[in-house]
Amino acid sequence: QAAIPRASFLQYLRQTRRGNSASSAGMLAADKLLLTSTIRKSATELKGKELELHKTNFDAVGTQAAVLAGFAVTGLVEFHLPEGANPIVAAAFYVCCIITLVANLRCVSMTTCVTVMGTGLALRGPDGSMVKAVEGMYTQRLTVFLSFGVGIASSLMTTAFICVLIMDTLPAILCTMILSWAMVSTARFTLRYQRMFHFDEAHTVSFDDLLGASAINNEALLRLLGADINSEQMMRLISSVIPSRLGRSRSDVHEEHHMV
Length: 260
What we know:
By secondary structure, the chain is mainly α. 80% of the residues lie in helices and 0% in strands. It is built from nine helices and no strands. The protein has helices spanning 6-78, 87-124, 129-139, 141-166, 169-196, 208-211, 218-225, 232-241, 250-259.
């Protein structure tokens, strides 16, 4: 057989190497696209569950606030002051009734607006609207719960003033003491539960880079994907998709691609 010229052999090796490099680059690009799509899908599903959780909580609070507002209206319309009632106690009763009505109606209005507008933004808004809607609903929790708490406290105070107005001295004192204990107990277990379920916001898992905001937890992301955290291949893919979040520049990623 005739010997293969050295120049032709070297040219064949270079062509084979270029073909392998192009194939590897294409496979890496396909892996990056698949990884990004998987992450976005999983992150969107998690945000959807969080959105549904906030909506359920606001609906429950709004329903209870509507019931308390109905009690306040009934007290204003149906309750008639006895003759010779103390004017100061009567004035306190009406003030507490109005506070109960206003606080609970405010709570109903806020929960209605937040749930309707928040879910509409999440489902019909532009890219990144899911994150904006969920974060907006989360930030409104304190305002809604505070208004609901004021409504509950003023409802108990209204009941206490009714006891003073229509009962004799001894029953009025006993009932007022029970209502006072209820207010203190409610405040104490609310604070206790708040401390029990408190968590540091800096340790929460977020997928904002892929859903339109600015933070991502890479370790939790790998757990979500079911991958080994020490997997060098998975870390290489994530660093190529989100290089700035892993402390690597785009030039480092391009150099790594050339090396492959």
